[in-house]
Design brief:
This protein is an alpha/beta fold and about 300 residues long. About 20% of the residues lie in helices and about 25% in strands. A 10-stranded parallel beta sheet has the order 1-4-5-6-7-8-10-12-14-15, with no helix packed on it. Strands 9-11-13 form a 3-stranded parallel beta sheet, with no helix packed on it. Helix 4 packs parallel to helix 5.
Length: about 300
């Protein structure tokens, strides 16, 4: 049995360094680093990975999408581990940096330093989910980012704000959760094709989305206790995929979307006089239309 294991290890060790780095890039970083103990050949292979994936979270037993804040006394060890990985990382072009933390004791200064460091590595995809009210301003002017997902302070139900200065010239995919001012992205992402965000249905001002390049849109409609119902106005002529979820109180205005192929409305509440007929009429040219979990809340 040991000879078989040695043969397998030898076969892997004979692969070129870049192939091994690609293999290690497919796994969480803590496991990639652990391969350094296999042999001298593997000691520094992990330093060439192009994906860095750090997950220090706890999730709800019945819903893995819900993060749970916690303290376990291992914050210093986690911080030292991330510091060490970034210190020895030898790649000059990072494909993905994923950082998910629901531990309340990880310092904001450490988070900022980590993000600043990966931006210097020309990172293309950034996935950040942390208990933090703001990120380094350099995130929002990064010239190499193509994919960006941000979820800040989600565990404490605190809505964060995007900075006033944003310009992401290469960004094609944007997913923002819990943001209080998502519309500041207008004109800041000239090649944006895919967008996912939350919309408040209780704002007094209308929510106007005007992004000519957009092809995929996911809107999560949130509603509080206010009786104010605004309009959601979509000006996205190249849209191909539309997904709407949540509490539907707002009135929808959709300008011509001749390229729309798929539309899905998965709401769990709507006002009693919600204009379903009007929405369906505007979507009548779509090839694939689905409506799920529709129920009424009478006001």
């Amino acid at each position: 049995m040991s000879s078989i294991s040695e043969n397998v290890d030898d076969s892997l060790s004979m692969l070129p360094e870049d192939i091994l780095a690609r293999i290690l890039s497919l796994m969480p970083t803590k496991y990639a680093v652990q391969t350094s103990i296999l042999s001298k050949r593997w000691r520094y292979t992990w330093t060439f990975v192009t994906n860095l994936d750090f997950d220090y979270t706890r999730r709800h037993t019945f819903n893995e999408n819900i993060l749970i804040t916690f303290e376990d006394g291992n914050e210093k060890n986690f911080t030292k581990f991330v510091d060490r990985v970034l210190k020895f990382c030898k790649t000059s072009h990072l494909k993905l940096f994923r950082l998910h933390i629901s531990n309340k004791m990880v310092q904001g200064s450490s988070l900022s330093n980590w993000i600043d460091n990966v931006l210097k590595l020309n990172v293309r995809e950034l996935d950040i989910c942390v208990i933090q009210s703001e990120l380094p301003s350099s995130v929002f002017t990064c010239k190499t980012l193509t994919d960006l997902r941000l979820e800040l302070c989600a565990c404490d139900y605190y809505r964060w704000e995007l900075p006033s200065t944003i310009y992401l010239p290469c960004l094609k995919t944007l997913d923002i959760v819990g943001c209080n001012n998502p519309l500041v992205i207008h004109g800041c992402c000239p090649v944006l094709e895919s967008l996912s965000l939350e919309v408040s249905c209780n704002d007094e001002e209308n929510f106007i989305l005007n992004i000519p390049t957009l092809k995929r849109l996911k809107l999560i409609c949130r509603s509080g206790y206010s009786n104010v119902n605004n309009k959601i106005i979509l000006r996205v002529p190249k849209l191909e995929y539309l997904f709407v979820d949540g509490v539907l109180r707002s009135l929808f205005e959709m300008e011509d979307m001749p390229s729309l192929v798929v539309a899905s409305i998965a709401c769990w509440q709507s006002i009693s006089d919600f204009p379903w007929a009007d929405i369906l009429n505007k979507l009548r040219g779509v090839q694939n239309l689905s409506i799920e979990n529709v129920s009424l809340i009478f006001l």
